[in-house]
Design brief:
With 374 residues, this protein is of the alpha/beta class. It has helices at residues 3-22, 32-48, 52-60, 62-74, 77-81, 89-96, 100-112, 128-132, 136-162, 175-179, 185-191, 193-203, 213-216, 219-224, 245-250, 273-278, 320-333, 340-348; strands at 87-88, 117-120, 123-125, 234-239, 260-265, 281-285, 306-313, 338-339, 352-359, 365-372. The strands form three sheets. The protein has a four-stranded mixed sheet, with helices on one face. It has a three-stranded antiparallel sheet with strand order 1-3-2. Strands 4-5-6 form a three-stranded parallel sheet. The longest helix has 27 residues, at 136-162.
């Protein structure tokens, strides 16, 4: 390909991008689907303007940013930056006890990757990302992926080599257990409850910034208006629902309060019973590998629905989020993210039929609506 052709192709892509950008609302964050489409185009432009040598270098340096963010987070440097005006390395050092030279060197990584704003020589300001990392849920998200997922992910290449490059199938012998002395994730959290607390805190924020499931799925029409009317009618059971944050968001709409709402999970994961009860949510200890204790929640043909709030991967051009989460599932739980066909096959294997996959964007956040097939 000649230089002229490469330039012309690049200019053509930029013109398409600009035309699509013109269609965005004034606040670009009001249209998640269009914004994410634009992000993919921008990523494509970066790819075609990056040499293979630069691309490989970027791969080599990927762990550095997470390490730098973790250092600043645990050193409480972000707290200092968020407390007002820009701060110098010396001022951060005075507030935290860290050495100024170390702060300046770590900040080089954080400013280069736009986590922190550089305001002058060794002078730094907070960014929206800095401030989000002060939220306990998001801070624990970083801790979860760095401290818990990290050892398993680092172990994954050697694990797959030792096992003949086969897809891991057993959570008790998979990459995570192999990295953590034979303990799977749930055994680790049981042995070390603080790690479980970090994970649960992370999960309360994981969907923030994306569409809530009722923004995708018409719960009022499909569930609330079709529930059988009785004092004991169960509207929704959130299985593996952690602290109950999904149901807490759900009940904010009075139209959704048409039946019993139950959150189920292991004891260490569940939220406070009193707090949930005040919102009309029942808290129930449950291991989803055992029989369902809520008999009213048993699947009935033509009435009951199984809703799965998950990713549905496209057959081609899987976005980075989907690809990375799939690899995370392999490394942590010997699980996977799935395509539409894989979801259909999986649910059909246990006697369920997918009625519809509700989505906001191709291959990303979706709600799978399934019923008994016979």
């Amino acid at each position: 390909m000649t230089t002229s052709t490469t330039r012309d192709s690049l200019l053509h892509s930029i013109r398409i991008l600009l035309a699509d950008a013109e269609k965005l609302p004034d606040n670009i964050f009001d249209d998640q689907v269009a914004r994410q489409s634009l992000q993919r185009q921008i990523d494509g432009l970066k790819h075609v303007t990056t040499t293979p040598f630069e691309g490989v270098a970027d791969l080599c340096f990927q762990p550095h940013q997470s390490a730098a963010v973790k250092i600043a987070l645990e050193g409480k440097w972000f707290e200092v930056l968020a407390a007002g005006s820009p701060k110098t390395a010396q001022e951060i050092a005075s507030a935290t006890g860290a050495e100024p030279e170390l702060i300046a060197r770590i900040m080089m990584v954080l400013t280069a990757t736009h986590v922190v704003d550089e305001r002058g020589p060794q002078t730094y300001g907070a960014t929206p990302m800095t401030e989000i990392l002060l939220d306990p849920g998001w801070a624990n998200g970083l801790r979860h992926f760095f401290d818990h997922c990290g050892p398993s992910m680092i172990n994954l290449p050697n694990y797959l080599q030792r096992t003949g490059y086969r897809v891991p199938q057993d959570v008790n012998t998979g990459p995570f257990a192999d990295a953590w002395g034979g303990r799977n994730t749930w055994a680790l959290y049981e042995d070390e409850p603080e790690r479980g607390n970090v994970f649960n805190s992370c999960m309360t924020r994981w969907k923030q910034g994306t569409k809530f499931w009722t923004d995708i799925y018409p719960a009022k029409r499909q569930l609330c208006e079709k529930i059988e009317k009785s004092n004991d009618s169960v509207l929704l059971v959130d299985i593996g629902g952690g602290r109950g944050h999904v149901l807490e968001e759900f009940v904010k709409d009075p139209a959704h309060r048409t039946g019993r709402l139950i959150v189920q999970d292991l004891p260490a994961a569940l939220g406070d019973a009193n707090s949930l009860s005040k919102q009309g949510i029942e808290r129930m200890v449950y291991n989803f590998f055992t029989s369902q204790p809520v008999k009213a929640a048993a699947m009935r043909k033509g009435y009951s629905k199984l809703l799965i709030d998950e990713l549905v991967l496209p057959d081609i051009n899987v976005p980075p989020k989907g690809a990375f989460l799939d690899l995370s599932m392999m490394a942590l739980e010997t699980g996977s993210e799935r395509t539409s066909k894989q979801w259909h096959d999986l649910l059909a294997s246990v006697g369920l039929r997918i009625e519809k996959i509700w989505s906001t964007d191709v291959g990303l956040d979706s709600v799978i609506e399934a019923e008994l097939s016979s």
